[in-house]
Specification:
alpha/beta; 5 helices; 5 strands; 20% strand; globular
C-alpha cells in the first residue's frame, strides 16, 4: 500500500483527508514542521501533501518543502501543496517554488483523489 504523509496543523483538515484516502493508501499525519522532518528521516513516503500555512510555526510550507528536498530520497519525490491560496498567480508561485501540484482548500474528495492518483502513477 502506498504511503502518504500529510503535513497539516489543522485537525479537521487532517481528518477529512485521512477519511478520503484511508481505504486506498496508508496515511500519516505530521502536525508541524518538526514532526514532518522527523517522520521523513525515519520513513520513506510515496507522496507528501503539505499545507502551506502552518500557523505561527517556525516555517511555512514553502520553507519546509525546501528542507524536505534536502533529505535522502526526497529530492525527486512528488510534493503537493494544499492551500486556500488558489489564485492563478499564487498557484504559479507555488509550482515555481518546487511543488509538483496544488490542491485548493476546501478540499474536495474527487479533486484530492484525482491529484493523488496522478502523482503516484
Amino acid at each position: 500500500m502506498k504511503k502518504i504523509l500529510y503535513v497539516e496543523d489543522d485537525t479537521i483538515s487532517a481528518l477529512i483527508v485521512e477519511k478520503f484516502l484511508k481505504n486506498k493508501y496508508e496515511i500519516m499525519i505530521a502536525k508541524d514542521e518538526d514532526s514532518c522532518l522527523q517522520l521523513i528521516s525515519e520513513l520513506q513516503f510515496d507522496l507528501v501533501l503539505m499545507d502551506i500555512s502552518l500557523g505561527d510555526k517556525k516555517m511555512g510550507g514553502v520553507e519546509l518543502l525546501k528542507q524536505v528536498r534536502t533529505k535522502p530520497g526526497y529530492k525527486q519525490l512528488k510534493i503537493v501543496a494544499v492551500t486556500a491560496f488558489s489564485l492563478p498567480q499564487e498557484k504559479k508561485y507555488f509550482l515555481e517554488e518546487g511543488f509538483d501540484a496544488l490542491i485548493s482548500k476546501p478540499i474536495q474528495e474527487e479533486i484530492l483523489t484525482t491529484v493523488v492518483m496522478m502523482m503516484l502513477s
